[in-house]
């Protein structure tokens, strides 16, 4: 397909999708760097390999996976011209995104209650990485929530139709990326001791 062909709207849509993918690739590179540093640091003598991840992290994983499903259902509802249902699914996705962050902070509290800290005399390098990786992911989930709020406002203004879903599609792509990223991170932290 020749990217220079098409209407101005088609070119604009392709440009927006490309910019989103550039952003996603840069995020992948950042998290690849942190997980690589995690692996390299795991060879240190002071690395603790018997630390269990907080149970709240597993619950938050289920929540974010479910939120991707609700986003998919919202898109499907728009395609089927069921605008009210689409709005309900988007609100559900937003609530689940907020729940994900709340449960993540519960996970941080569980780590603190177990005596693990990000910095200080009782901290260790492994827990510092876990705090850092999870916290940076939360920052990106906040960005995802902001994009979801924009999508929800546009949905309430009846901007999306089966023929015009670009904003919804871009928001959903970013949200699904955040979901897949967290699943990767939780599996990585679980299996890489």
Folded structure, characterized:
The protein has 193 residues and is mostly helical. It has one domain: Up-down Bundle (Four Helix Bundle (Hemerythrin (Met), subunit A)), CATH 1.20.120.80. It is 77% helix and 0% strand. The chain has five helices and no strands. Helix 2 runs antiparallel to helix 3 and helix 3 runs antiparallel to helix 4. The model has no long low-confidence stretch (mean pLDDT 92).
Keywords:
193 residues, mainly alpha, Four Helix Bundle (Hemerythrin (Met), subunit A), 5 helices, 77% helix, 0% strand, elongated
What order do the helices and strands come in, and which of them pair?
Layout: H1 8-41, H2 55-79, H3 83-113, H4 125-156, H5 166-191
Helix pairs in contact: 1-4, 1-5, 2-3, 2-5, 3-4, 4-5
Please identify which CATH superfamily we are dealing with: Cytochrome c oxidase, subunit III, four-helix bundle
CATH architecture: Up-down Bundle
Mean pLDDT: 92
CATH fold label: Four Helix Bundle (Hemerythrin (Met), subunit A)
The structural class is mainly alpha
Q: Which overall shape is indicated by the principal axes computed on the Cα atoms?
A: elongated
Strand content: under 5%
- The radius of gyration over CA amounts to 19 Å
Unreliable spans are none
């Amino acid at each position: 397909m020749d990217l220079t062909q098409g209407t101005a709207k088609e070119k604009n849509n392709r440009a927006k999708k490309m910019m989103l993918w550039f952003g996603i690739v840069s995020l992948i590179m950042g998290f690849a760097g942190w997980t690589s540093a995690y692996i390299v640091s795991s060879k240190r003598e002071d690395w603790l390999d018997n630390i269990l991840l907080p149970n709240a992290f597993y619950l938050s994983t289920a929540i974010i996976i479910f939120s991707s499903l609700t986003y998919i259902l919202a898109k499907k509802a728009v395609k089927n011209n069921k605008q009210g249902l689409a709005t309900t699914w988007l609100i559900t996705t937003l609530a689940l995104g907020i729940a994900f962050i709340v449960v993540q902070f519960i996970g941080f509290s569980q780590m603190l209650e177990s005596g693990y800290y990000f910095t200080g005399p009782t901290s260790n390098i492994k827990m510092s990485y876990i705090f850092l990786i999870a916290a940076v992911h939360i920052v990106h989930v906040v960005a995802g929530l902001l994009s979801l709020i924009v999508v929800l406002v546009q949905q309430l203004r009846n901007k999306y139709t089966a023929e015009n879903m670009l904003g919804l599609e871009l928001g959903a792509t970013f949200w699904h990326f955040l979901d897949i990223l967290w699943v990767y991170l939780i599996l990585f932290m679980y299996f890489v001791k």
